[in-house]
Amino acid sequence: MKFLDRFFERSSRHVASTTGRRHFIAKFGSLLAIGTAAPVLLPIDRTSKALAAESPKAGDPGDPTSCDYWRYCSVDGFLCSCCGGSVTSCPPGTEVSHVTWVGTCRNPADGIDYIISYNDCCGKHSCGTCACTRNDSEEPMYRPFNNNDINWCLGAESNVYNCTVAVIRGTAI
Fold first, then answer.
1. How far apart are CA 99 and CA 159, in angstroms?
2. CB of 81 closer than 8 Å to CB of 129
């Protein structure tokens, strides 16, 4: 028992002599900064932005019900704009998946590349209209968040796929 007492006493004295209040505050500040940055760095749950519907702008050329629409450069599935929803919102009775894949598409109106988040809408069987398979910026399966061949409804309550929305996340650098 004396050995354990001496070991813990020496360990405690060593820690006390090599660290101080400033060291504790510095470590605590680092952990606080990492804790606040972690949710931003993990690109998994994009539900809130996918649910916020954006209306098509005047500089948004093309037909959202056509596979040739500029936002659909990396889409693989049925278009929600043909299934009772819109480019950015799921049809009634479906829910947006919590996980997504991303692509970069060029808007022909302004020549800017935009980051597009493709969210699957889940909960009802596939609508079966406006099937599109475009793989302009698709990555292999070992880069899953840039691959459109995965059933992204596995992150939702129901894993039944209905259609896909294309939400602008920002401009590509």
1. 12
2. no
- Using alpha carbons, list the distances in angstroms from residue 130 to 68, 133, 152: 11, 10, 19
Q: In the annotation, is 101 catalytic?
A: yes
Q: How far is CA 49 from CA 16, 42, 108, 162, in A?
A: 48, 15, 24, 19
pLDDT at 54 over 50: no
Report whether 119 contacts 46 (CB < 8 A).
yes
Which two tokens mark 110? 């302004």
Which residue in 101, 110, 113, 136 is the catalytic one? 101
Active-site annotation holder among 45, 60, 113, 120? 120
Judge whether 120 counts as a catalytic residue. yes
Top-confidence residue, 58 or 153: 153
Give the span between the Cα atoms of 94 and 89, in whole angstroms. 10
- Residue 103: the pLDDT is 82
Confidence category of residue 16, pLDDT binned at 50, 70, 90: confident
Q: Is the pTM of this model over 0.90?
A: no
